[in-house]
Amino acid sequence: MKVLVTGGAGFIGSALVRHLVLARGDQVCTLDKLTYSGSLTNLKAVEHHPAHQFAQVDICDGQAVRSCINDFAPDVVMHLAAESHVDRSIDGPGEFIATNVVGTYTMLEAAREYSQQHSGFRFLHVSTDEVYGSLGRTGTFTETTPYAPNSPYSASKAGSDHLARAWHETYGLDVVITNCSNNYGPYQFPEKLIPLVTLNAINRRDIPVYGDGMQVRDWLYVEDHVLGLCQVVEKGRPGRTYNLGGENERANIDIVQTIIDAVALHTGQDVQQMQSLIKHVDDRPGHDRRYAIDISRVRQELNWQPTTDFEQGIRQTVRWYIDNQPWCEGLSEVYAGQRLGQLKQLQKGR
Ligand code: NAD
Ligand code: TYD
């Protein structure tokens, strides 16, 4: 396949690009603006590979997007480029509307134009389970759960999902959509829970837990997600949505403990000393209590399911962060571990 991956210099996108080029032998063009969360360092493994090329393009720039698509002539676009962090969306929602909504619209329009000359072309829109809102103690999200996004991030992703669906229904563009749960693994930007806790535990810094820490997320290892995306892009039914998840619900406070145990295992650091770093801090505004995913559709129709054991996945991830300190230090200029997304600060500024 010839695959154009947007957001391919980010966390999930770079795992996808490595898999497509190195494991599958696909020809890939990575299209990425290289925002704070995107880096060519994440693509070192394919830097000199003849089957990979890179284009620094903003997905909101229609002309640049069109010329990139026309020059590369892909069989599929896998669209991952996005502003991806809930806390940043609280501090500054504008970028989320621009990239996630207007950027996706721009990608869809360019794809629609291109698809008129290229039969068999397909557009995969990668999204999140957060569009479904928050669950109570029981229940799971299915593909028919009504949308009820609570954060500017999830609202902007919901908007982009609706656009992708509409471009299929109205224009007949071959679109498939995935809504996935929380990912973890190597190369995740350290503003997110798992890398943040890992680095703070290793470096003996406070570990911030929002509220009571009993919020539940479903966690999926990034490489399992990548395999799921490939199944959907190859075999998914046009216009269909597929939920992807890890069948692995955990409370945040339990995640912190699992990471501490993994750090202790790899470094010999004292568990109790690391536990004393845990600080319960003010909760996130609009914090969703629980996410859980029903993956029956993708399992039955496309034969995909997660395979990585969570404790094993966390041990691998922690090992990666220990072994890649220069990567982490390189990011400290753009993000130094500070708390993001506190309404208090916004109110003070008003
Ligand atoms: P990330 O923040 O690590 O990477 C995003 C990438 O998009 C970066 O390389 C960035 O430079 C690029 N980008 C941002 N704005 C751009 C623009 N205007 N033009 C071109 N490129 C731009 O995010 P991630 O965690 O890898 O998420 C990738 C996708 O998967 C997103 O669409 C996200 O909504 C979705 N998703 C993420 C998770 C998760 O747990 N991380 C879960 C479900 C779905
Ligand atoms: P995050 O990794 O930001 O992903 P998302 O908000 O998309 O689920 O956060 C995961 C969970 O961890 C979420 O419930 C918020 C919580 N959290 C903390 O308790 N402390 C932190 O420092 C961060 C970044 C997140």
Q: What's the alpha carbon Rg, rounded to whole Å?
A: 20 Å
Number of helices: 13
Distance between the termini: 51 Å
Shape, please? globular
| Overall CATH architecture of the domain at 2-188 and 220-246 and 291-308 | 3-Layer(aba) Sandwich
How would you sum up this structure, described in words?
It is a single chain. This protein is of the alpha/beta class and 350 residues long. Helix content is 44%, strand content 16%. The protein has helices spanning 11-24, 62-72, 86-91, 94-115, 152-171, 193-202, 222-235, 252-267, 271-275, 296-302, 310-323, 325-331, 343-349; strands at residues 2-6, 27-32, 52-56, 76-79, 122-128, 175-180, 182-184, 207-210, 216-221, 241-244, 249-251, 278-281. A seven-stranded parallel sheet has the order 3-2-1-4-5-6-10, sandwiched between helices. It has a three-stranded mixed sheet with strand order 7-9-11. Helix 1 (11-24) links the parallel strand 1 (2-6) and strand 2. Helix 6 (193-202) packs across helix 11. It is globular and about 60 Å long. The termini are far apart. The mean pLDDT is 97. Thymidine-5'-diphosphate (TYD) binds next to helix 6 and strand 8. Residues 6-7, 9-13, 32-35, 37-38, 58-60, 80-84, 99, 103, 126-128, 157, 180, 182-183, 189 line the site of nicotinamide-adenine-dinucleotide.
